[in-house]
Design goal:
The complex is a heterodimer of chains A (187) and B (178). Chain A is an all-alpha fold and 187 residues long. Chain A has ten helices and no strands. The longest helix of chain B has 23 residues. The chains are: A mainly alpha (187), B mainly alpha (178). Chains A and B meet through helix 4, helix 5 and helix 6 of A and helix 2, helix 3, helix 5, helix 6 and helix 8 of B.
């Protein structure tokens, strides 16, 4: 008889032992773990520990019986809640009004529609005002940072008056030309 | 007998009798999970009642993508975890004794001791791990269902249970070796 090949790592096996015990794994994996367990003492010990732990946990006291009348209290609370939502009036027996008890709930059921409209209007006005103020601020900021034309002249901008008399072709003249060109390109 | 999912559709139409059927079917599971987690009857009852009212409130949004049982456990688990966050759980030890009357006094004492040790070790677990252990070992849920209840993945459940087992084994060592 050929010996079955164990292809599994201990860590992989140990992580799946509780599902192995309950036979919840895919048949192929279940069989592979079985083969591994036949050959691995450490994993067999883990299996024994898992079985023992399950037994110990199961052995703990059962919770007490359901409190008497719990079911009735739940149904009563549900009935009260349902009646809170049912729309009063002649059409209250219609299917749509029956549905309304659970559709019309939360804060919407408590706040009248006129109040909700007023709240929505105030909110929309606030948002509009915010947008307008934001636009104004944006314009004022951008107009203040755009340099006056005089500042495109590096002599004024960088207080380089001393270079005003630089002769043509000199290094100072080239510097002024270069600076003026680059500052005029900036946004 | 109508399935849970069919009953939920009826509840969404305002059918209180269908709701009562769901309560009758699932109140024990909800109670067991809540009690095991909270360890206190009054708190567990509050959680169970609130859980069913939430089922009622959200009936029209319910989509049967998972079993109703997993859906209910999910609500119960969230309420339990919220409860814990709010109250900084007092550690209860009110579970009744399980000693069998036929057992000798020594065995009964040993069983009580073991039950107390289990309760203490469960209380040492982080809330999500504790809920995962309750759902797995006491309520018998599969990994996929627990993942739905705890809003995680199968891998996440694997990690939660693996860590929980390591902690439990550390604290229950003497009972595991017997």
């Amino acid at each position: 008889m050929s010996k079955k090949v164990d292809t599994m790592r201990c860590k992989t096996v140990q992580k799946r032992l509780d599902r192995f015990v309950r036979r919840e794994l895919e048949p192929r994996l279940q069989a592979a773990i079985e083969v591994h367990l036949e050959q691995c003492d450490v994993c067999r010990q883990h299996l024994a520990q898992e079985e023992r732990l399950t037994a110990i946990l199961k052995n703990t006291a059962e919770p007490p019986a359901l409190p008497k009348g719990l079911e009735d209290r739940i149904i009563e609370a549900a009935r009260r809640r349902q009646s809170e939502y049912v729309v009063a009036g002649p059409a209250s027996g219609s299917p749509s009004s029956k549905r309304s008890w659970n559709r019309k709930k939360g804060w919407r059921a408590l706040v009248p529609s006129s109040t909700r409209t007023a709240q929505a209007t105030v909110l929309a006005s606030g948002i509009l005002l915010g947008i307008l103020m934001g636009q104004q601020t944006w314009h004022s900021v951008h107009s203040s940072i755009s340099l006056p034309a005089s500042q495109n002249d590096p002599r004024t901008a960088y207080r380089l008056d001393c270079l005003s008399d630089a002769p043509d072709g000199s290094l100072a003249e080239s510097f002024l030309v270069l600076t003026a060109t680059s500052s005029s390109r900036e946004p | 007998m109508p399935r849970d999912e069919e009953l939920m559709l009826a509840v969404a139409r305002g059918d209180l009798a269908a709701f009562a059927q769901l309560v009758a079917r699932h109140q024990l599971s909800a109670w067991n999970a809540a009690y095991r987690f909270l360890g206190n009857a009054a708190d567990a009852e509050d959680v169970v009642q609130e859980a069913f009212l939430r089922v009622l409130d959200s009936a029209d949004r319910y989509r049967p993508t998972a079993t109703f049982r997993a859906y209910l456990y999910r609500i119960v688990a969230r309420l339990c975890l919220d409860f814990l966050r709010r109250k900084r759980l007092r550690i209860y030890s009110e579970l009744p004794d399980v000693a069998d009357e036929k057992e000798t006094p020594e065995k009964a004492f040993e069983a009580q001791e073991q039950a107390a040790a289990v309760r203490q070790s469960l209380n040492l677990l982080p809330p999500k791990q504790k809920m995962a252990v309750i759902l797995r070992y006491y309520e018998g849920l599969g990994y996929r269902e627990i993942a739905e209840v705890l809003d995680t993945t199968n891998k996440g459940v694997e990690r939660l249970l693996s860590r929980a087992r390591t902690t439990l084994a550390g604290h229950l060592g003497e009972f595991l070796e017997k």
